[in-house]
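Q: Please design a sequence for this.
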């Protein structure tokens, strides 16, 4: 049996600042696509959030694209650490499109940022069950949640899974470097 020990304790602020977000691709031109591109490009400025809001208020969008635009606007809010406002957007997306895994990933990320680790696990597990375009981000976020709950062993295995799914991603490599694994005799 393996016994895992963290080399350095992860502080809550670090956990909140490092969660991964999953944007939704919206195509077809217009403001919703611009919102999508901003979220996918890592933007956080309020002007991009206003673009998303204008798309939601003024464009004729399919249910999937409208839910995706809520997710994307929520991602922009997450990047500014506005957990409550982001959660409201993810709630709207889940209400419209309950099978959109990205809405759950991000709602889980918002819960992590708000230090509600146990609540985040519900959404992150749902995202895993539904599937997402970037599953490594789900496992990475779930690892952060487990660390927040002092479940180091589960965190280690989820960081490993994130790295397995996305071998070039630096974040899980950095987190795993903090761990020391010993075999129990």
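A: Design:
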């Amino acid at each position: 049996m393996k016994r895992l020990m963290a080399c350095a304790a992860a502080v809550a602020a670090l956990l909140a600042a490092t969660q991964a977000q999953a944007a939704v691709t919206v195509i077809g031109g217009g403001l919703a696509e611009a919102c999508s591109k901003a979220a996918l490009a890592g933007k956080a400025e309020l002007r991009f959030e206003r673009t998303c809001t204008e798309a939601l208020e003024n464009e004729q969008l399919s249910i999937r694209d409208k839910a995706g635009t809520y997710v994307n606007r929520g991602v922009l809010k997450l990047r500014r650490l506005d957990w409550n406002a982001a959660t409201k957007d993810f709630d709207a997306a889940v209400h419209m499109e309950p099978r959109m895994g990205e809405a759950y990933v991000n709602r889980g990320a918002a819960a992590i940022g708000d230090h509600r680790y146990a609540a985040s696990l519900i959404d992150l597990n749902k995202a895993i069950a539904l599937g997402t375009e970037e599953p490594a981000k789900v496992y990475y976020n779930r690892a952060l949640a487990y660390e927040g709950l002092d479940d180091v062993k589960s965190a280690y295995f989820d960081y490993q899974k994130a790295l397995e799914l996305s071998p070039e991603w630096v974040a899980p490599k950095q987190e795993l470097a903090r761990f020391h694994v010993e075999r129990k005799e």
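Q: Thanks. Anything notable?
A: The beta strands are 2-6, 179-183. The chain has one domain: 2-183.
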